[in-house]
Amino acid sequence: MNAKYFICFAFGLGLYFQGFAANKYSSESLEFLCPTFNPDFINKSKNGVLHHEKSWFSRKINFVAGPSFAGNYNLNIPENASIETILDTIQATDPDGDALIYSIQAGNTNTTFLLDSVSGTLKISKKLNYHTQSQYSLIVKVTDATGLFSETSVDIKVELLNAVPLQSSFIWETAASQPYVVNEAQGETVNNKLYNFGGFDSQKSGFTPTSRAYVYDPNLNKWTALAPLPPMNGTKYGGVTHTGITTDGTDIYFAGGYTSNLAGTGQIFGTKEVWKYIVAENRYERLLDLPIVVAAGQLEYVNGWLHHIGGTNQARTVDLNNHYALNLDDQSAGWKLLAPLPNPRQHAGSAVYEGKIYYIGGQTGHDKNLITQKKVHAYDPVTNQWTEKADLQVPAGSSGRGHISSAVLVAGNQILVLAGETVHSSGQSNLVSAYNPNTNTWGNLAPLPKARFSGVAALLNNCIYYSGGSRTNITFKSSPVLPPTQSLIQNLKSNTGGVYSFGELVVGTTIYTDQTYQIKSLPDDLNHSLFIKTPDKDKSLSEQEVFSFDITKGSTLYIAYDSKATVLPAWLNEWQKLPDTISTTNPIDDTYQLYSKSFPAGKVILSGNMATPAAGVNSNYYVIIVPNNTTGVQPEWKKEKSIVKLFPNPSSTGGKIKMFVSGLTPKMLLTITMQDMVGRRVYTQQVKTNQEGIINAELTPFPQLSKGLYLVTINFPLSKVQAKLLIE
């Protein structure tokens, strides 16, 4: 049978293709005459012979497929990527050239991403946090003008930053005090600022929650008033204490707590109310109430859900282990009851680390009957199970630490717990305890200058802050707590919308934010340096200002540039070409030539990879930052039993230099580098010790050095020694 007539006949019988049901085809192109059959044709006869009657209708059918995607998307995004950062452009094609509309159908937890319906541009709309959600799986739909559509998946992985140990030794000082003495307040950090809400009103007698709220900016060292807390519990007074508080990185949520009474002269011991503080608008929004009246519980945000855990009842007679969770993307479903806390308690602390909620310390009972706790439990939302962890560090003779609800934070690869109450009215602690979830171990860092409880803690600009508590308004501030290189760079900004992020320069690390190419080898003296990952897709940019950042101290910057370049951009001609390279797994250009230049502390602006007159470049560059440190080095230096000598020293331009090193491991491979006093590397050589652990060698081939002072570094497997060389 002719295919055309078969199709018509199939339609006449009421058949259809799956493609029509799936919206892959429309009915607006091809026109056929197709038969229809009278439903009672079997009852009709002519001259005793059964027959059917038919009529004909016109049907247009389009067998051209609708829009389609070339494939799925896989993106890696650093957790410090700013809001409005463009992640990628999701694009589909349509054979008819119809206008296309893009939309996110699923997986967009808490509206973290925005997709432009016309261009397909995907942006970040809320701050990312590796610990609260490390992966997103979006389903994106494209629809053409006729209603035909297709879908693709966009898998996004959030990259963790600063997962490093803290410095155990740091110094405490004071920062700006809060405007009023405050106790039992609650706080959270958003956009590197500390938001502080409520607490007991020091301007009133007794225990009355205050509606005052403030934000602290560490860059200005200043507290600024926020909109007052809204009236709660059917009163005309705002204010809350003992509330659970958390953030999704963009806005702040609080649930339960003690509120002001009807007269504004005391407190009500509990509420069901849940609120959201919208940071960008400085206003509060009521959310769905908790199932029970509660106070002194903990609230945490994980994967788009609010988790309220523990606390005490309104009569303050029962320690609770209730665990409720609310899906912020489907609040109409209500609060869901999850696995209860194994050890009922309140006035605890909590934090989210790598997707798990850690519930720390706390107390049972109240006032003179309270007993502080040191138990630690971790909740896994994937399995809905709790696991007991190593006990919290407590002062000698104490049973635990409570009143730490806003004094727990994540810093580096640890969870910090600051201060806390040990005994009602008479026992406070100044401990700063650090928990490593990966090893399930505790340690103590530099203690606070004074014992405190019920204060608010934050990590701002790489420094720990602890403010208020113990009926004070004092703010303590630590010196930087992460390794120096982690605080060397600030205000990294892209002018192109591309993703730029920090990394540690080691073998195996990726060099771009949008590719998986890894480092295979690099110079020893740059190993473990801080570097800026760039997007390879920005390789064609020629603008004068592509991205910028601030360095907090004088540093030497290294540009790793495509070694196949035939012409350098004009801006890179001002940098010194070095004898060293970095090799990678990039199949197009596996080798990157290094160029160096010294910069003082301040703003650094870098230009495009293809700025005039660059040519022959196939891959984008990336940047390595090494802080300058050339003080305190002696011409002769001892390292345990090792002795290093350079001779002749001083030497002359063009002269030969010999090196003597003793007291080393036999047959050990060493790397020797030489830098001028602004940090530019001018020489590299590898040598091996003899059977006696001695090096007695001439440095060859040696460059023609200008007059001046040079720093020679001998890199050992686990350390290094240095000496100065004077060229006269």
UniProtKB/TrEMBL annotation:
Q: Which GO terms describe its cellular component?
A: membrane
Q: Which domain of life is it from?
A: Bacteria
Q: Name one GO biological process term.
A: homophilic cell adhesion via plasma membrane adhesion molecules
Transmembrane stretches in the record are none
Which GO molecular-function terms appear in the entry?
calcium ion binding
> Which part of the chain is the Cadherin domain?
69-170
Q: Quote the InterPro entries the UniProt record gives.
A: Cadherin-like_dom (IPR002126), Cadherin-like_sf (IPR015919), Gal_Oxase/kelch_b-propeller (IPR011043), Kelch-typ_b-propeller (IPR015915), Kelch_1 (IPR006652), Kelch_repeat-containing (IPR053256), Secre_tail (IPR026444)
**Pfam families tied to this protein:** Cadherin, Kelch_1, Kelch_KLHDC2_KLHL20_DRC7
Q: Which PANTHER family match?
A: OS04G0487100 PROTEIN, PTHR46773
**NCBIfam families to which the protein is assigned, alphabetical:** Por_Secre_tail
- In its UniProt entry, what is this protein called? T9SS type A sorting domain-containing protein
Query: What organism is this sequence from?
Result: Adhaeribacter radiodurans
Q: What is the lineage of its organism?
A: Bacteria, Pseudomonadati, Bacteroidota, Cytophagia, Cytophagales
